[in-house]
Amino acid sequence: MTDQKLNALLKELTLEEKISQLLQLAAPFFEGSGSEGQITGPMAAMGINDDIVKNTGSVLGLSGAIETIGVQEAHMKKNRLGIPLLVMADIIHGYKTIFPVPLAIACSWDLEAAEQSAAIAAAEASAAGVHVTFSPMVDLVRDPRWGRVMETTGEDPYLNGEFARAFVRGYQGKDLKNDLTRLAACVKHFAAYGAGEGGRDYNTVDMSERQLREYYLPAYKAALDEGAELVMTAFNTVDGIPAAGNKRLMRDLLRKEWGFDGVVISDWGAVKEMIPHGVAADETEAACKSLLAGVDIEMMTTCYEDHLKQLVESGEVDEALIDEAVLRILELKQRLGLFENPYRGANVDREREIVMSAEHRQAARDLAVKSCVLLKNESVLPLKKEQNIALIGPFAQNGDILGPWSWLGSKDDAVQLFEGLKSKTSRIVTAQGSDIESMTEEQLEEAVKAARETDVIVLALGEHSDMSGEAGSRSNIRLPDAQLELTAKLKSLGKPMVAVLFNGRPLDLHGVYDVADAVLEAWYPGTEGGAAIADLLYGDSQPSGRLTMSFPFSVGQVPVYYNNFNTGRPQGAPDAQVRYVSQYLDIPNAPLYPFGYGLSYTTFAYSDASISSDRMAFDQALKVTVKVENTGEVAGEEVVQLYVRDLAGEVVRPLKELKGFRKIKLQPGEAQEVAFILTEEQLRYHHSDLSYTSDAGEFAVFVGPNSRDVLQALSFRLTK
């Protein structure tokens, strides 16, 4: 359909039909859905009738080619002008083939693998009839108490931006209209959703605009620069105004400053939630403020549907604003080719062929291997085939390893850890030991008995999926007491002990890291998790994951992150006093495990760091090089990381900022020179007047395997 025809179509719509295009409803409202008629509770109170449904612009939560084709077919017959539905869904880290959670994917530091995971998710979901995914989530997070850290890629704005781009490329490909194996990407949650006070979901966010622009906005911008078609609003306030009604955020920044002309959609119920937020007296005011702010689609509340018409008739809302929103929605449908092919990629035969295919499962296994992070290893790993193994813990034979946002992923399809280890050795016994949050005497006795007769204990510990994810905030981020008690009891047997952790957030690991001889952070590793972990434990694959979010020493440090400021009284300065410095009296300032950290089964040595010049002109790039050598006995992958510090800025600058990374593979004894190009553009930051520029002056450069263990700083001066 041409732009001219789109505009003609818009003119044919009545005001009521246009307003309904701005409404998104869940699957049970639509004829032909598997959940048709299952409208209870809050949905039943919405007052949705058939006239509204037949004019609705989009649906969320449909699954399967038969269902999506059936719903679209029924809808097209009922809609007066035959306007197709947009089918949207939460395809976060896989459709049915579930990859590790996004925080784990980020720990791979492998952008190509991340892109491939999104492409596979898109291929499966598009065959099932989905058009739009509510992904990537690019919220920067510094607080592990927040349950949705598992959806993010960590605490660094540069790295988050790189992964945002990779996910968008994977979902959308190069030709969204004609490549029917792709989905439109919706970047979320705009903006700063990950900075809720106290780590509590949906909570207040309050920060300076400079901090917002410096740390929280770059990843959204990166996703949009890569071509993301949609933006989802956040639940939280931004400078005192909920995002769903924040004109300055949506109209001024997103549309005018950044030039975004795609669709903006609210999160579930966020428009109506402006009433309890306290910025709208009623649904009429909520509808008015959201539309004026630039929200095109209202998800699962009916403020627009029930009140926009009267707002237009009273003159409070210009109908032209509704036309703009509807046109953006129609243009998205056009870019997806829905007017020519309303069923798009939905294909029962193709769905049957590719969903959960062997190729897709292998890709999930490979990425799970890359995503696990070895945090500790005192010569226990890799395991030996001749060793007798006791696999103990609530995750020993547990399919709850997909994560809380896996939607259509099946726990029954997940490779459990026992299943994975059993494929490697017959010398294994297992016992549950405890439930996730409780333990019986019988469970403990069974675990002790199993462990006594073996050479090595593998403990499978963690959080059940409801303990993280949306609305999964926790003030205590240690493992439940039952698991810590089990760990301590088994340690008393004097056996070597390996802890494998299944969780959605960085944890306070007291009672585990200080007890176990080895700790492998597996996160929620997805469909092939047990197989991938077995590959790692037995050395058939090498651990190469590196943290993208710091693990706190204690929850009392939170937020704790690597790119922090120094303060005027820094701890550890040469002339620092003992007491009157910025410190805790009872715990270290530093996290237990820093950003970028991870071990391998081999060791790497860094040497011969150099910089091409001690001066950088504004139009000149510098080359930073370092020699990295595999000094161990097996091949391994290393993530070489480049950090920079601006020693004297116009505003305070972080102690370190990630500016580049390279993932390299080296054979035993092999050395490689790793090079980075550093430009003036990478030294820019937001000044007190919000200008984005660099300053002439001294800079320090660090290279190393993580943000803590870096070589002595190189330096250069930026000159005008």
What is the radius of gyration computed over CA atoms, rounded to a whole number of angstroms? Answer: 26 Å
Shape: globular
Unreliable residue runs: none
Number of strands: 26
Oligomer: single chain
| Major beta sheet summary | 8 strands, parallel
Percentage of residues in helical conformation: 25-40%
Name the beta content range: 15-25%
Strand order of the largest sheet: 9-6-5-4-3-2-1-10
Please give the alpha-carbon distance between the first and last residues: 52 Å
- How confident is the prediction overall: mean pLDDT? 97
Give the count of helical stretches: 21
Structural class: alpha/beta
Summarize the structure.
The protein is of the alpha/beta class.
Descriptive account of the structure:
The chain is of the alpha/beta class. The protein is 29% helix and 18% strand. The strands form 6 sheets. The protein has an 8-stranded parallel beta sheet. Strands 11-16-15-14-12-13 form a 6-stranded mixed beta sheet. Strands 18-26-25-20-21 form a 5-stranded mixed beta sheet, with no helix packed on it. Helix 7 packs parallel to helix 8, helix 7 packs antiparallel against helix 17 and helix 11 runs parallel beside helix 13. This is Beta-glucosidase BglX. Its EC number is 3.2.1.21.
Give the topology:
Layout lengths: L2 H10 L2 H7 L1 E4 L14 H4 L5 H6 L2 E3 L4 H14 L7 E4 L12 H5 L4 H17 L4 E2 L23 H16 L11 E7 L18 H8 L1 H8 L4 E4 L3 E2 L2 E2 L4 H11 L5 E3 L8 H4 L5 H11 L4 E2 L3 H11 L5 H17 L12 H7 L3 H14 L1 E5 L11 E4 L24 H6 L5 E4 L9 H12 L3 E7 L18 H11 L5 E6 L15 E4 L7 H9 L66 E8 L3 E3 L4 E9 L5 E11 L10 E10 L4 E8 L6 E2 L5 E2 L3 E8 L9 E6 L1
Parallel strand pairs: 1-2, 1-10, 2-3, 3-4, 4-5, 5-6, 6-9, 12-13, 12-14, 14-15, 15-16, 18-26
Antiparallel strand pairs: 7-8, 11-16, 17-19, 19-22, 20-21, 20-25, 23-24, 25-26
Helix pairs in contact: 1-15, 2-14, 2-15, 7-8, 7-16, 7-17, 8-10, 11-13, 13-14, 17-21
